[in-house]
Automatic annotation (TrEMBL):
Reversibly transfers an adenylyl group from ATP to 4'-phosphopantetheine, yielding dephospho-CoA (dPCoA) and pyrophosphate. Homohexamer. Residues 6-134 form the Cytidyltransferase-like domain. Its EC number is 2.7.7.3. The gene is coaD. One of its GO terms (molecular function) is pantetheine-phosphate adenylyltransferase activity. This is Phosphopantetheine adenylyltransferase. Pfam families: CTP_transf_like.
Amino acid sequence: MKRTAIYPGTFDPITLGHVDVVKRGLKMFDRVVVGVADNPDKSPMFDVSTRVAMVEETFKDEPDVQAVRFSGLLVNLAHEQKGDAILRGLRAASDFEYEFQMATMNRRLDERIETVFVMAREDYTFVSSRFIREISSMGGDVSELVPPVVIPYLATK
């Protein structure tokens, strides 16, 4: 029986930090489902279909990674995808409080689904999609921080 982790986020855009979390998740799980959140309240740079496409292109050679669009409760996505765990990356101690609250609430909604935290590699502790969007919009080079497939998408914005 395959063990599946759900890795949720907005991925606006996907970064090499996200890629690192997925790859490390594959060391613990047979399958990682990247849940691309459709949350218009966050005012994303890219629409959800484009964000799913970027994730799919990034992992096109990895059959055990799947990108899906979702809205609503994360535990519902976990049920739909037969997920065993929620995979989350932590960049700094400041991430922990929010992530701890989310993990606690998700456990309250479904105690069978565990949350697994992966510490970011040192190279990516400062990388966030927000910084990528800001730097790129001002003409900065983010090519060492995002998968190559993301660069053309950023160039159109």
